[in-house]
Design the sequence.
């Protein structure tokens, strides 16, 4: 059979095309194989230890006291230095007391005098005083009797002078047997008698008043002081006792003592300086117990209860855990955030925890164990998150479920096929597939 030239060219072209396509296909397969077998350079991190849902907070003293003076005064002695341990009642500062002691003595003398006066008044008059009052009454009565006799004499003289003057007046008017001089002399005698009688009456009245006064004084001496007098004297005693108490308090306040056990962390006074009321002289802290102050988010505060036991770890004692107790959970959040103040009390009798240091607080028997991975290690595919594990230089895709920790890290929830100590790829690219060979840089 003869082949036409045109048909033979077409067959050759087809065969050439098939050969060419076959060659291209072989080349492509070779490139894919080379890609599958080539090591992909990657950067990896090693997963850390499992962490629980703990919090970090600052350690504060259980008690910090600013010791101040209640009064102003010159410092005569300072008995402690910074760093010294003090017990309740130890004398820290002594102020000068010379003037204060003198004021106290004066106040005490006033109380003694006032008490003596009150005691005498309550005891009433002595027998000698009553006898003297009785004698005064008798003397006044005798003087009154004398004045009454004088009144009677004056009355008689006045009546005689009156009769004489009247007789002379009648005779002078009716006859010339009585001269004008005789009448005037009779009038003068009348005036003298009248004046003497009136004076005797006044003296008698004064004597009667003296008798009344003497009798009243005797009655007071016999009856004693009135309740109102006793009350007034007792009030004066109480007032002076208050003055003594105030003076005594001033003397006591000049001795400044430690209000509780603790350690002096700051001293701000020197001998010879003036202490001023309300100005801190010392700062004393009690570190036998400390408090860790936390800020717990609103998503976690519901799980935190006062009285719950916790474990506390401090950076300066990394290998030791301290038992603590949640003693305060605030029902009100912080002003500028959605976190709630929480306080944990920790025993610190060994003095290993320091105020101002950062401590980690972990709930006991927590079920919230999680690994932490950077967000840059996640691969999102079909709505799921994956990380690339490195096992013997080979990539293994592992699905994970996560929750945010912060802007750069996430927690890996329990149940994911990840363990602490494994290596995962950071910033994986699309060339990495399950089973790919990796080159760790």
Sequence:
């Amino acid at each position: 059979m003869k082949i036409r030239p045109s048909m033979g060219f077409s067959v050759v072209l087809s065969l050439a095309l098939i050969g060419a396509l076959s060659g291209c296909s072989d080349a492509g397969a070779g490139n894919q194989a080379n890609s599958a077998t080539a090591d992909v350079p990657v950067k990896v991190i090693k997963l850390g230890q499992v962490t629980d849902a703990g919090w970090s907070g600052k350690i504060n003293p259980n008690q910090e006291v600013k010791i101040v003076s209640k009064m102003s005064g010159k410092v005569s002695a300072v008995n402690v230095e910074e760093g010294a341990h003090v017990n309740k009642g130890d004398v820290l500062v002594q102020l000068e007391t010379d003037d204060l002691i003198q004021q106290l003595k004066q106040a005490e003398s006033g109380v003694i005098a006032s008490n003596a006066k009150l005691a005498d008044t309550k005891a009433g008059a002595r027998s000698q005083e009553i006898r003297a009052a009785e004698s005064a009454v008798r003397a006044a009565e005798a003087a009154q009797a004398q004045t009454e006799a004088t009144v009677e004499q004056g009355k008689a003289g006045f009546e005689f002078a009156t009769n004489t003057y009247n007789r002379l007046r009648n005779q002078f008017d009716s006859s010339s047997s009585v001269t004008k001089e005789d009448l005037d002399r009779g009038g003068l005698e009348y005036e003298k008698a009248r004046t003497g009688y009136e004076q005797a009456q006044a003296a008698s009245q004064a004597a009667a008043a003296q008798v009344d006064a003497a009798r009243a004084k005797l009655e007071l001496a016999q009856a004693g002081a009135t309740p109102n007098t006793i009350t007034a004297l007792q009030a004066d005693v109480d007032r002076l006792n208050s003055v003594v108490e105030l003076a005594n308090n001033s003397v006591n306040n000049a001795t400044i003592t430690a209000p509780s056990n603790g350690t002096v962390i700051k001293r701000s006074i020197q001998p010879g300086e003036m202490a001023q009321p309300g100005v801190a002289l010392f700062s004393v802290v009690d570190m036998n117990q400390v408090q860790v102050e936390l800020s717990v988010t609103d998503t976690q505060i519901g799980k935190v209860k006062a009285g719950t036991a916790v474990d506390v770890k401090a950076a300066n004692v990394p290998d030791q855990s301290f038992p603590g107790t949640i003693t305060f959970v605030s029902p009100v959040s912080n002003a500028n955030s959605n976190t709630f103040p929480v306080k944990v009390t920790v025993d610190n009798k060994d003095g290993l925890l320091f105020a101002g240091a950062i401590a980690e607080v972990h709930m006991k028997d927590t079920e919230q164990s999680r690994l932490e991975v950077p967000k840059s290690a996640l691969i999102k595919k079909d709505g799921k998150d994956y990380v690339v594990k490195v096992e013997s230089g080979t990539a293994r895709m592992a699905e994970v479920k996560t929750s945010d920790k912060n802007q750069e890290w996430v927690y890996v929830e329990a149940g994911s096929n990840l363990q602490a100590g494994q290596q995962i790829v950071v910033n994986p690219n699309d060339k990495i597939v399950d089973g790919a060979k990796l080159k760790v840089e």
Notes: Residues 1-37 have pLDDT under 50 and may be disordered. The radius of gyration is 59 Å.
